[in-house]
Amino acid sequence: MTNRPSRVLDRLVFWKETPQTIRQLVRKEFGLRIRKIQLYDEALTHASMLDGDTTGLRSNERLEFLGDTALDLVVARFLYDAFPDEQEGSLTQRKSKMVNRETLNLVGTNMELGALIRSKMRRNDVHSSVVGNALEALIGAIYLDHGYEKTSRAVMRMLKRHGADHKVHETVDFKSKLHHWAQREKVKLAFEVKREYHVKGKTRYDVVALLDEVKRGSGTGSSKKSAEQRAARGAWRSVFDAEKSENPGLKKEPPAQGDEQDGAPSPQRKRSSNRRRRPSGSDQSSQKQ
User: Fold this and answer.
1) Given 3.40.80.10, 1.10.1520.10, 3.30.565.10, 1.10.10.10, which CATH number is that of 4-169?
2) Buried b or exposed e, range 115-148, using 16+ CB within 10 angstroms
């Protein structure tokens, strides 16, 4: 009985720090209901919790291994169906763009998964990679709870919800290019969401790219990130047009592969810098470093 006030206090602190429960998160992000809660408790348990534990607590590392494998299979099948004419090398590159470590860390952070992770680290010390690993463990828990077919649909729903599926079409990261240009030229770059609305039950975002508070590009997407990428593409085209008018000898580049539908050029100051390099072995193996 002496431990009861402490348990109540722990629950109160937990609820204060977390905006949602794991049941709410799985329902919102994956569209599934939790059946075996112990799997999800394990998926949210960082290895640091095992230090000094005598209760038989298990960390999420085994579920992370399982979720990593399940995620690879889900995305591989998605790409296999989406690009029937492409060979293994090209499909591997597309998969690495869609489920690389950076993407998983960002998606896990955006869904606020980090607030639910149990660890002995201070909340501010939890690295984004810990969140990305927990996301893989969560997928492993979902696989054991619901089987492959439901997990496959749920994972693709989650990835599309966060715009990760758009990455397979991107060969040029216009947002990063625009950031580098703005830093070099000492221009203030900002993205602003002008409108959030729904079309046939799906959320859409209208975003504009501002250079020194002047609109230079706009884009629409199913996620803020994809809309920003399209807005950045338009702004980058305007930068190229401005530079071309100042330097008539600058040649116009064709649209990057995967961006033809928007008709956006891929501007460069020097044509030689836009040569495509042959993929090396490190490119193929960098999907989850």
Assistant:
1) 1.10.1520.10
2) bbbbbeeeeeebeeebbbbbbbbbbbbbbbbbee
Name the nearest CA neighbour of 283 among 72, 94, 83, 15: 94
pLDDT given for residue 15 in this prediction: 37
Q: Give the residue numbers annotated as catalytic, written as ranges.
A: 68, 136
Tokens of 10: 């722990």
Residue 211 has pLDDT above 90, yes or no: yes
Inter-residue contact 30 to 140 (CB < 8 Å): no
- Which DSSP state fits 271? G
Name the residue type at position 71: L
| Per-residue pLDDT tens over the stretch 219-258 | 998 888 888 988 998 898 888 766 655 555 444 443 433 3
Q: Which residues, including other chains, have CB under 8 Å from residue 179's CB and lie 6 or more apart?
A: 189
Measure Cα distances from 245 to 116, 177, 210 in Å.
53, 20, 20
**Stated pTM of the model:** 0.57
